[in-house]
């Protein structure tokens, strides 16, 4: 069965974690050996597509792919919220929501960035967004 979900926990040193399926089903075990992409792209919050199989201790993800790769990928750097979609009646997004979206855009748009580079870029952009009142 092919499913999509978000990585909710991932321990890079141990090489495993868990995915929360989009359908709200029970979390699925994820192992680094079942990735079809570079393991450095995997982190908490990343959206993935995977097949499930019965493992020794329950459901296990296999053939794990990043969502958005291939023809369905958003253009690099294109966030879900654009300037034209800001309206006075619209609530501002939280700093955490912006951090999550920035991580997604940076991983898809510039997969060669290191974790430290992503952290520094996010800090600068979140500080800018706070000064302009774009986030709460």
From TrEMBL:
The keyword DNA-binding applies. The keyword Aminoacyl-tRNA synthetase does not apply. Residues 67-92 are annotated as: Disordered. GO terms for molecular function: DNA binding. It comes from the Bacteria. Keywords: DNA-binding. Residues 2-66 form the CSD domain. Pfam families: CSD. InterPro entries: Cold_shock_domain (IPR050181), CSD (IPR011129), CSP_DNA-bd (IPR002059), NA-bd_OB-fold (IPR012340). This is DNA-binding protein. It comes from Amycolatopsis oliviviridis.
């Amino acid at each position: 069965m092919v499913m999509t979900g978000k990585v909710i926990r991932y321990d890079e040193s141990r090489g495993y974690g868990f995915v929360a399926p989009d359908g709200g089903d029970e979390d699925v075990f994820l192992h680094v050996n079942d990735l079809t992409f570079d393991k450095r792209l995997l982190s908490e919050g990343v959206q993935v597509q995977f097949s499930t199989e019965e493992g020794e201790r329950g459901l296990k993800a296999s053939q794990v792919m990043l969502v958005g790769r291939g023809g369905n990928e958003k253009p690099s750097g294109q966030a879900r919220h654009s300037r034209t979609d800001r309206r006075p009646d619209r609530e501002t997004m939280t700093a955490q929501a912006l951090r999550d979206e920035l991580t997604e855009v940076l991983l898809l748009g510039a997969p060669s960035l290191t974790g430290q580079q992503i952290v520094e870029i996010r800090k600068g952009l979140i500080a800018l967004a706070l000064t302009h009142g774009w986030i709460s």
